[in-house]
Structure prediction request, 327 residues.
Amino acid sequence: MTDYSVLDLVPVREGGTVSDALAAATDLAVAAERAGCKRFWVAEHHAMDGIAGGATSVVLAHIANATQTIRIGSGGIMLPNHTPFQIAEQFGTLAALFPGRVDLGLGRAPGAGPELQRALRKDLHRAAEMFPHDVVELRAFLSAEDETAIRATPGHGSDVEMWMLGSSLFGAQLAARLGLPYAFASHFAPDHLDGALELYRRTFEPGPALDRPHVMVAMNLFCAENTAEAENLASSQLQSFVRLRTGKPGKLPPPLPDYRASLDPRARAIVDHVGQASAIGTPDEVASQVNAFIARTGADEVVFGGATFEPEARTRSLALAMGALTA
Prediction:
């Protein structure tokens, strides 16, 4: 049986505030729990006007406190931005507050220019080169078996579930070598999906955390009573993708009717590329698209992204889709 989860960037919409975005993320997590989703993940981004999840562990604590059973976690923490010890303490604290509910998804991409590197006091490109070593060190800090020179308290012996995130063959290979579950970011970088999953499964080495490969794939999800309305909901995120890829990032814009028809060839190519891992339409259409993607990837889990300008539209979209997928 496939599990379904939610990935949220805590989007800040045009005319909205960070407080609004955090409230909407919390409401979405409550709705995801009600709909039967397994996990609610928040992604770390910095210095972006349209994304409010930078202090990821703080956001997760707030969301976990507003929910009861759904797993909460990072999708992901960009480890080059931090030290393994700091992340062990943060997620060890979350695990102590919310036992049995905490996931730690890790990514390698520093995703930062020189200004952010200075602000973080990090050589992020050097830190990215140290990523495999840092993952191993972080796992040691969280383990009850491994004894490190200094003990993370909280953190040592916590029940945090570690994941490897990726959009390339590198993350797949590292996840396989360390025996970790693997989540592929196909919702925005679908190019290496099939190759990465094949490599991960073929080279997987069982470990303490996992005895066989376990795959999660990401999809964009926009579901409504009719296809035109679902396309309209999707247009806010599609505009954001185009603006990001053309060097004009900003807050989440309101939807535009017939947005795809207005695009020039370059923007159309961006939208078509991102859309390779999307489910857009009525509940029946969305269920068919999701099931086809599961059949293609053999995924154990699917995590749904997909920001909408009106937060209530996303909770409604999720409820409609989950109703069709679990019927």
